[in-house]
């Protein structure tokens, strides 16, 4: 069964405090979990107020669906959170 995990590095240039950053990140995490049924958690940059590393895992019978889901997730973040920049995505297959 194919499983894919990625680390999405996010930059929040307008964030001015940890509280502000956590509100944004928690909103992203909640929406990704509900919309894509993915396992999502902030795993890096917990003490930095303009950076977040968000780990995302998806499992499916079809690797094509997994890749499509990741593309949709990145697009969702970029289009719905204009104050967040995706700096990079690291695969952990």
Would you give an account of this structure?
The chain has helices at residues 18-36, 63-80, and strands at 3-11, 39-44, 51-59, 85-92. It is of the alpha+beta class and 93 residues long. A four-stranded antiparallel sheet has the order 2-3-1-4, with helices on one face. The longest helix is centred in the first third of the chain and has 19 residues, at 18-36.
List strands and helices in order, with pairings:
Blueprint: E1 3-11, H1 18-36, E2 39-44, E3 51-59, H2 63-80, E4 85-92
Antiparallel strand pairs: 1-3, 1-4, 2-3
Low-confidence stretches: none
Proportion of strand residues: 25-35%
Find the count of extended strands (DSSP E, 2+ residues).
4
Q: Specify the number of helices.
A: 2
CATH architecture: 2-Layer Sandwich
Label the structural class. alpha+beta
Order of helices and strands: EHEEHE
């Amino acid at each position: 069964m194919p499983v894919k995990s990625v680390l999405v590095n996010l930059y929040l240039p307008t964030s001015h405090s940890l509280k502000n950053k956590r509100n944004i990140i928690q909103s992203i995490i909640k929406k990704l979990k509900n919309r894509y049924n993915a396992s999502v958690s902030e795993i890096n940059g917990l003490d930095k107020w303009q950076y977040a590393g968000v780990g995302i895992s998806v499992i499916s019978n079809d690797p094509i669906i997994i890749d499509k889901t990741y593309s949709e997730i990145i697009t969702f973040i970029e289009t719905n959170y204009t104050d967040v920049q995706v700096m990079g995505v690291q695969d952990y297959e």
